[in-house]
User: Which sequence fits this backbone?
């Protein structure tokens, strides 16, 4: 269970990006966060694992307050939070196996990490997860030899290797073609069920959000404007979240690439 | 379904194990051998700390008492660098044309490349001692040395630039009936001029650095002043010279960087 | 719009302002050359006889004397060893220096400035000047040469490696921080693989340069082939000096070929 209350983030002396934001995510549900770029989606996600330092407010994950942790305690907490990135953020020159095992870095003694002497159970688990998402035969390939969809699967396995209590996904499909991005969304939803994980997804494709998630949170100007099941997202709600944003940036209907091809 | 594997090894950089361990062994053997045959004079080295202390206590504080000598040395280095740069760049232009594969006939190309390889291969200090023997101690040997040094770099880079020029412009000139020299002047020079200016500025900076070094073997400039100070155990003066050399190099590097940013 | 009733008859490549600027630059360059020529301490009579002197000297080098070739080749091997060992040690020592002098990895401002100080002082002092100092400390010999080359190489390698660290892709670093990996593990997994190509390229490049530098150490007494060259020149044994020069030329060319090969294989 993730519980965020009165979260504020301000960069420098500017306007706050997040304004006293409250959000609760109970276990095993897929929640998507939609909103125009600049609404604060990415900042919100990065506040949870403290890649971005919140200015004030509290974030509680399964009873642990995250905003006050320092050093070793913070690293212990981060081990329990898996993250998936828009540009995959793999280490290109390492093999897929090393990338996957880097999800265990928080647990491994330094010598094992340095000499690539991973524990047997970690290797078995890595192969199982890679098998599950269909990339096991790539274990010895370098990460930069893979296609976008395959790279994102490596990213997903890396996050799952952490044994996370929650998965954060920051625009996981924005760099992928429509077909691959549907596969990844499908995978995230299935994994959430299999491992009983809450999954929080930033996404700008509203159609995908409606199709693959249990709940949609709409953000605008650092506040939550909408929070309900996908079916409740009607034209009014869309107007609230996206008022004044050009239609092509709303991520409605067809994928932007396909729209460009059609237009 | 087969059992999931629970072991994994990173694929080695060299796949063949014989070659891999062979190379590793060869490297270890080489290092051990190389260290073992070094004629280290450990007794002399062990006295080093004492001597280092004497040198450093002699060097502090740096003495600028003979700053007249220091300034003269520097001005001489500057003159050497300027003349060597001008001479070197002027000579580099024909040599670069000789060494450009697309413009020169094969025998001339070989000659041009040969000159560049020889000029690049010898460290300026070696060139300097030969010139010092041939034309005597002093800045003239320094100028000659740095001309050779400049050719090694400027002619090489310029030849590479000439090989990249746009053939279309040359052919356009030829097609209006221009002869060889006008073709060069209108078809090739405008394309390589910016690079030539940039290289010249860079080389002036390099020559200034190098002139501090060639002086040590008698080719004039601040290097000679430094070598003299060292030879006479004037470590405080030597430190002062070194500090000024470092400062001048930093300033000159900054200036040439600025100029090149604008020219390029 | 330019009025079309008068067709311009004169054409100039530059505007008057540009022309003035160019003129000023040419004037400054010309004055600098004139000043150098006029005041440089050169006996001009010697300049005019220089070509003859040079021809004379090279004439005396022919034919090269190869009676000492065995010794020369052996010392050449020693020269290679100096360059290789010094490069190897310098590469290892430059790693921590690069780490503290890259803005994105340095622990704090003090270490950043310490790193930069090491780089600048190492880079600005030429190998020969370092050799002069270490010959004074350790006495003439190979140790002084190795230490001199090392001192100069640390700045070179450290600077290029530090720049490579500053230019890495930040995103994998962020991803591994998010997994709860400690600082050192993030370096091992996200930074080291990214700078490896630069690391090899710079090490090979520096080895190639050091090969050249180690041929002159002997001229200030710091070991290597330079000692034999100096000896031959001091005794006016020009045929032997010619052999040494040819040996150095061969060494440098072989070094260039080897480093090109290594570069292709490793990177």
Assistant:
């Amino acid at each position: 269970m993730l519980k965020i209350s009165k979260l504020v983030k301000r960069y420098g002396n500017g306007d706050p990006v997040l304004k006293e934001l409250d959000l609760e995510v109970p276990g095993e549900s897929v929640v998507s966060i939609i909103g125009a770029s600049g609404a604060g989606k990415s900042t919100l996600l990065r506040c949870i694992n403290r890649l971005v330092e919140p200015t004030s407010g509290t974030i509680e994950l399964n009873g642990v307050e995250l905003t006050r942790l320092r050093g070793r305690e913070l690293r212990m907490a981060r081990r329990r939070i898996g993250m998936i990135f828009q540009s995959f953020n793999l280490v290109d020159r390492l093999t897929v196996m090393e990338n996957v095992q880097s999800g265990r870095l928080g647990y491994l003694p330094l010598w094992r990490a340095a000499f690539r002497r991973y524990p047997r159970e970690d290797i078995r688990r890595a192969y199982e997860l890679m098998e599950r998402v269909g990339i096991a035969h790539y274990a010895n390939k370098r990460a930069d030899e893979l296609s976008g969809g395959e790279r994102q699967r490596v990213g997903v396995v890396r996050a799952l290797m952490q044994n996370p209590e929650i998965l954060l996904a920051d625009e996981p499909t924005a760099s992928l073609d429509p077909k691959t991005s549907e596969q990844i969304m499908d995978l995230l939803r299935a994994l959430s069920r299999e491992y009983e994980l809450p999954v929080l997804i930033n996404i700008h494709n509203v159609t995908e959000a409606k199709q693959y998630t249990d709940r949609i949170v709409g953000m605008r100007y650092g506040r939550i404007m909408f929070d309900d099941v996908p079916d409740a997202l009607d034209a009014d709600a869309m107007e609230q979240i996206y008022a004044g944003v050009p239609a092509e940036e709303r991520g409605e209907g067809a994928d932007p690439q396909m729209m460009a091809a059609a237009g | 379904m087969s059992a999931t594997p629970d072991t994994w090894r990173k694929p080695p950089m060299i796949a063949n194990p014989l070659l891999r361990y062979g190379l590793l062994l060869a490297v270890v053997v080489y290092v051990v051998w190389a260290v073992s045959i070094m004629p280290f004079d450990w007794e002399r080295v062990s006295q080093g700390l004492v001597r280092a202390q004497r040198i450093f206590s002699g060097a502090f504080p740096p003495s600028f008492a003979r700053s007249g000598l220091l300034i003269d040395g520097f001005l001489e280095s500057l003159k050497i660098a300027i003349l060597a740069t001008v001479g070197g760049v002027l000579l580099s232009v024909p040599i670069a044309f000789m060494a450009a594969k697309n413009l020169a006939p094969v025998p001339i190309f070989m000659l041009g490349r040969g000159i560049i390889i020889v000029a690049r291969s010898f460290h300026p200090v070696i060139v300097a001692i030969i010139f010092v023997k041939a034309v005597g101690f002093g800045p003239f040997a320094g100028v000659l040395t740095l001309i050779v040094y400049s050719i090694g770099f400027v002619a090489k880079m310029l030849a590479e630039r000439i090989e990249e020029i746009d053939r279309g412009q040359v052919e356009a000139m030829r097609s209006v009936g221009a002869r060889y020299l006008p073709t060069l002047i209108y078809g090739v020079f405008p394309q390589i001029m910016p690079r030539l200016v940039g290289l010249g500025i860079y080389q002036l900076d390099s020559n200034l650095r190098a002139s501090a070094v060639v002086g040590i073997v008698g080719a004039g400039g601040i290097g000679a002043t430094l070598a003299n100070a060292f030879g006479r155990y004037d470590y405080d003066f030597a430190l002062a010279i070194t500090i000024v050399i470092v400062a001048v190099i930093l300033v000159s590097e900054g200036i040439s960087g600025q100029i090149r940013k604008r020219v390029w | 719009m330019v009025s079309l009733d008068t067709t311009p008859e004169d054409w100039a490549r530059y505007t008057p302002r540009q022309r003035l600027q160019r003129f000023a630059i040419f004037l400054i360059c010309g004055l600098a050359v004139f000043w150098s020529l006029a005041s440089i301490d050169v006996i001009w009579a010697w300049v005019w006889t220089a070509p003859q002197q040079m021809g004379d000297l090279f004439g005396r080098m022919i034919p090269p004397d190869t009676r000492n070739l065995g010794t020369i080749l052996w010392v050449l091997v020693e020269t290679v060893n100096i360059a290789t060992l010094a490069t190897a040690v310098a590469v290892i020592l430059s790693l921590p220096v690069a780490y503290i002098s890259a803005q994105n990895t340095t622990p704090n401002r003090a270490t950043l400035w310490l790193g930069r100080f090491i780089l600048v002082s190492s880079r600005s002092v030429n190998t020969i000047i370092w050799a002069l100092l270490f010959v004074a400390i350790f006495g003439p010999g190979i140790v002084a040469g190795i230490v001199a080359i090392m001192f100069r190489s640390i700045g070179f390698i450290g600077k290029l490696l530090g720049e490579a660290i500053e230019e890495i892709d930040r995103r994998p670093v962020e991803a591994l921080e998010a997994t709860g990996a400690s600082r050192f593990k993030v370096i091992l997994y996200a930074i080291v693989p990214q700078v490896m190509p630069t690391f090899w390229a710079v090490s090979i490049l520096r080895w190639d340069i050091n090969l050249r530098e180690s041929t002159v150490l002997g001229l200030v007494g710091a070991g290597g082939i330079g000692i034999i060259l100096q000896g031959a020149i001091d005794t006016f044994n020009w045929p032997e000096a010619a052999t040494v020069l040819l040996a150095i030329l061969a060494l440098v060319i072989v070094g260039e070929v080897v480093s090109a090969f290594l570069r292709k294989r490793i990177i």
